Amino acid sequence: MADTNHPIAALHWVAIDVARYWNAVLVETASGQRHRFRMTNSAADMQHLIDFLRGLGGRCRVGLEPTGDYHRPIAHRLLTAGFDVVSISSVAQSRFREAMFNSWDKNDPKDAAVILEMLKQGRVQRYVDPLLAGHHDIQELSKTYYQISRARTKVQHAIINHHVPLYFPEMHKYWCSTRNEWWVKFMIEFPTPAHVRQHTCEEFIERASALVGRRVHRVAKLTEIWETAADSGALPHDLQSVAVQTFRFTLRHYQQLNDLRNQLEQQAQDLLANDADYNNLMSLPGVGPITALTILAEAGNLRRFGHHRQFLKFCGFDLAKSQSGVHRGREQLSKRGNARLRLAFWLAAVVAIRIRENSFREKYDRYVSTNPTDPDLKRKALTAVAAKMARVAYGMIKKNQPYRRFFEQSLPSGSIPCREAVGAPT
Prior knowledge:
Elements: E1 11-17, E2 22-28, E3 34-40, H1 43-56, E4 59-64, H2 71-80, E5 84-87, H3 90-101, H4 108-121, E6 125-126, H5 130-133, H6 136-167, H7 181-189, H8 193-197, H9 201-208, H10 218-229, H11 242-271, H12 276-282, H13 289-299, H14 308-315, E7 319-320, E8 323-324, E9 327-328, E10 332-333, H15 339-352, H16 359-367, H17 375-399
Parallel strand pairs: 1-4, 4-5
Antiparallel strand pairs: 1-2, 2-3, 5-6, 7-10, 8-9
């Protein structure tokens, strides 16, 4: 185990340039001696590295650049072995390399040298291991949900833009939302107008009435579909053709992805039902189960941030501007934080401003009051609301309390504090 109480003179620096198969390691001991070697992402090589660092004695600080998820296993092993592990920003490393070598050219040994210099100068970020921090399960659940949603969206576009115009274009008007389960079940049973018109109207209504849902006038709706099928613009397909079979295959694939997504949503609710942070986030307007799951999965423990501005910077909601000499650019979002976390708050803000009587809607209306039809102003207002939502979510979790609607208006001044903090143009 590394000795964290050893004097600073015995501090050893370890820089690791992570890659898929081979990692370039550069070690500088407290005496100034350097060791270079390569290692694979295997358990044996990781253990050899740990044994080597322990043999140096004293304290070791390890810096690595997060690369995909290839850095996770070696970082986890080093942390469990007791070493101090920090991460290096890839953007900062790129700029530091250009300043250090006066070139954009790069290779693994050069990147390891850059990481070492940044490590020694303290230009590092705190590394949080999800497995040790306790949010690895919800992070994997959130990422799996995201991948299934992406696959589902791709199949959905294929159905709407390719299959429906060829097989039954009149059915597109009944596609009201992405959760139209009845629509998919109906199209699996009746993929073309010929499948509808092979029955009489009474037979069709009897066979299809169980598919169209409970909140509609079934007879009127199915009668309209049966009459529309008589003069459809679809291509003439044989009932048992291979093309129709492939259409049904795509519909069943879409249905399976829907079922998987619903299972993940239920699993997320069951997993986090007793989590105080999850329940507090669910009280926030515009935040649902998946949005709350994404926030907790991507941000981890929000209490590790000392101030809400640190959390805003982590999300990429902090303001930055370009300056050179006398030129000063306008302030805009840096967008250098967690993109999925920023998207979660953006989508929550979109929902919140459509709900009446909440401070987010009030902030949005106040922001666009000068020109409600200006699309650019609407975008800036929505960005400000999303940033405010991130700030409020941080405060709720930090203080362990649910959202209180219009709490800001109860202040003596009647104004929302720090409203200009996120009100700059984007």
